[in-house]
Amino acid sequence: xxxxxxxxxxxxxxxxxxxxxxxxxxxxxxxxxxxxxxxxxxxxxxxxxxxxxxxxxxxxxxxxxxxxxxx
Length: 71
Prior knowledge:
The protein is an all-alpha fold. It has helices at residues 3-35, 41-65. Helix 1 (3-35) runs antiparallel to helix 2 (41-65).
């Protein structure tokens, strides 16, 4: 493995962890909004859409890091 590949993998792993944290934070925010009557349904929909987009990115990076696991 050359240095560029190691740096790329390290960078992907760091980004993956950042996305997972953001995903958990959104999950918590959505849960709080669901527990209380929400006047701003648009905000709730936007948060859910963002959460789904993050999940897609997480899965894509996981596939890049370990492609054989999903084959």
